[in-house]
Amino acid sequence: MFKNLIESSSHSREFKRRGTFLLFTTATYLVLFAITGVASIYAYDAHLEQQNLEVVAIISPKDLEVDQPPPKIIADPICRCSGGNKSNKYDVRHNPTARVDQPEVVPAAVSAQQNPDLPIRTNKFFIGDQDLNARPGAGKGVASTTTAGGEGTTILDDNPPPPLPTPTPVKVLRISDPINSRALSLPKPVYPSLGVQIRLQGVVNVQVLIDESGKVVSAKAISGHPILIPDAVRAAMNARFSPTTLNGQAVKISGIITYNFVLSK
């Protein structure tokens, strides 16, 4: 018994010694790590003198104003004279301007305003104090007095283009009664499958426009169930009618085609 007590006492002292050593070692390592970290912070050189501290600003691009030479006129004037057109065969220009069909001549500036100067039309022209156009085939007559004023001035011409012919109004014959009986070919619409399933029945009225040859050019349902309307309109577009004349002139017809959707019992 006494031997066991002595051995137990010796083991407890050994454990205390080892625990003290472990605590001392751990504390030593912690102190060393702390000293190393602080020293590394003070020893680090960020090289601030070599860093680029310039501020870069992004500015939207802007076209530089470059002085461009005036557009070159690809024509040679006959002479510089004052007054009107000395020869009725050639134009007179106050400030000759290149034509728009000369892509090799670049304008000096771009503007949305109308150019007050008339362009040259031929390779031969006079330079005068106003803009005058030679009248084609004038011979020894008087040149036309086409003038170009300042900004916003209307250009006047003694030779205006001929007026456009007045279009003849298209006559449309409107028929109030159903036109089913007038049809040469009136295909039956396909019964929609959904309508068959729900036992849907009803009447669909389709407004059609028929051209002079009897062909349906447009169709629009004016009444009927939405499920039945698409097939009725599709059938109306395939209908054909005989041409209709009024006072010997072919006319269009506007009428209603009636489709009655009925399920067999």
Query: What pattern of helices and strands is seen along the backbone?
Result: HEEEEEHEEHEEE
CATH superfamily of the domain at 172-261: TonB
Q: Could you name the ranges where pLDDT drops below 50 across 5 or more consecutive residues?
A: 138-157
Query: Structural class of the secondary elements?
Result: alpha/beta
- In total, the number of strands is 10
Number of helices in the DSSP assignment: 3
How would you characterize the largest beta sheet?
5 strands, mixed
* CATH topology title of the domain at 172-261: TolA/TonB C-terminal domain
Second rung of CATH, namely the architecture of the domain at 172-261:
2-Layer Sandwich
Broad CATH class of the domain at 172-261: Alpha Beta
Q: Summarize model confidence as the mean pLDDT.
A: 75
Outline: flat
Radius of gyration: 50 Å
Percent helix range: 10-25%
